[in-house]
Every structure is written in structure tokens, then in C-alpha cells.
């Protein structure tokens, strides 16, 4: 059974400057120039600093759970048309079959639509979405967008032990668009070790915001799940965003709401094993998943590139060291 403690770590901390000149040089060599944000990018994102993010998200949380048939059916049908959602993949294809909009948004797919296409020594994509960035964690720096970085320690809520675990490892960031399937699956077999809920902002996550909002993924509210896997330790991080009214896991249920002011940690004394491709959580409204692996434990598939679409179950990488 899990037990929970309130942490007095401030979440999140100010990003530390590069501790070594070599780190800055490595980053410069990997991404020599930053992709410049346009005026339109700034116009899209500056209102997010003024909006009451959590209040609006709480309203959306209620709005998505209205069960009046006429109202929720209109919502669902308009959303399907606007975002061109492929309902032929869904277990329930008719808007009238869903209890409310949230039930539609977190819809189950037909059994044969998403299957694990990888072998035992490979990683599968945990979600439907698009690769935002992936590659090496350069000391403690991760790429947010071309030429923009954020700190590993800040992403992990100042936890130095976790920071040491994943320093110089591998990361992948996968963005889920509104039209995507929003259940999250395991990319590899794993035994759950601990989970953290890190309170934070709820900035929108999109191409404009990653170029204009510094340290976006380390500032937004998130749920961090730590697993022991055949590829060593893995962190699977569910990052919230504006209007992401709820994040949940299969073992703990709804994590947020309620909103908290301090980092909360659950440790699992009885290891909970979850098989690869098994569902582990979901977004009630969507955002981003970040995967972390330790140094020299995995290699990403060389065919994967930023902005490339992926589907749950497709090849993501390969285990370098089988444990």
C-alpha cells in the first residue's frame, strides 16, 4: 500500500546556471542557434501570464462533466468536427454513448487499434502524439525547443537523488493534441517505486509557448511516477497545462484536483508491477508526457525526429543494458 508525505521543498525552484563551462559548450555544439519566436508567438502566449489559470481549469473540470444529453452531445459533435477526431477507432463511436464530454475525451479504443509492436528489449511509445524533443540530457539540461533548455533538478522538484539518477541520461517529450487518444500506457515493464505531485502553473503547451515561456515543463503542474524497469530507473512525467482539469493514474486514481501548495510524495512499499503497453494513467484534457532514463541504459530510435507523429505501441527505442 502507498503512503503519502507532504514535502516542504518549494516547487519549482529557479533554474541554476550551468555549473561547468563544458556543459554550455556541449549544448552549443548540439543546438548552435535558437529558433526565434515571432511576434505572433508572443501575442499567443502573453495572455497566459494574466489569466487565472487554476480557476479556469476548475471551471473546465465542471464543464466537461455536464451530463445533459443535448448539451454534452452538442459539445462532443462540435469537438469531433473541429479537430477531425477519428471515431472509427473508438470503442464507442456515437456521441450519445458517452456519459459526458470527459468520458468522450478519455475514450477507450477498440482492442486491435493500438497494439505493442516492439520486442522484449525495445521501448514502445506510451501515447498517441507528436515528438516534441528527444535526445541526451546534457549534464542536467534538457531541450525544451531548439536552443531553449530547462533544468533536470527543477523538473524533478529539487529532488537531488532523482537528479543524480537521471543526470546525463536520455529524455523524450511527447505532446498530445486535442484530437489524440489521451490514455497513457507503459513503454516498458515496470515496478512502481514512488510518485510525486508537483504543484505549479498551467501555461498552455504548444509550439508558441515552448519558444516563449522559459522552463515551461519545469514550471507547470505535473505528476512524476518513478519505476524500476529492465532498463533501470525510469521517470514518466505527466505535465499539466491550461484547461487540463485533471491528471490521474490507475493505481492512485485522480491526483489533481485537489490543488496543493506543496510537493506531495507517495512511496510504494509493496511494488506494483505494470506490464509494457498496459494503461497507467490518463489526462482529462491533454498535455505532455516526459520520459527520463538513466545514463547509457537506452537508445532512442534513430528514425524519430521532433514534430514526428507517434502512436501508442510503436517503436520508441531500445534497451542498451538488460538488467
In short:
By secondary structure, this protein is an alpha+beta fold.
Features:
323 residues, alpha+beta, nine-stranded antiparallel beta sheet, 9 helices, globular
What does this structure look like?
The protein is of the alpha+beta class and 323 residues long. The protein has helices at residues 21-30, 39-45, 53-63, 69-83, 101-105, 152-155, 160-166, 207-212, 216-219; strands spanning 2-6, 122-124, 129-136, 141-145, 148-151, 170-175, 183-185, 190-198, 222-229, 232-239, 246-249, 253-256, 264-274, 279-284, 288-293, 298-300, 309-310, 315-319. The protein folds into two domains: 40-105, no CATH class; 115-319, no CATH class. The chain is 21% helix and 31% strand. Residues 3-21 have low confidence and may be disordered. The strands form four sheets. A nine-stranded antiparallel sheet has the order 1-13-8-9-10-15-6-3-17, with no helix packed on it. Strands 7-14-11-12 form a four-stranded antiparallel sheet, with no helix packed on it. It has nine helices and 18 strands.
* Mean pLDDT, all residues: 83
Radius of gyration, in Å, reads 19 Å
Any low-confidence stretches, pLDDT <50, length ≥5? 3-21
Tell me how many strands there are: 18
Task: Name the structural class.
Answer: alpha+beta
What is the helical fraction, as a range of percent? 10-25%
Give the domain tally: 2
Strand content: 25-35%
Q: How would you characterize the largest beta sheet? A: 9 strands, antiparallel
Helical region count? 9
* Dominant shape: globular
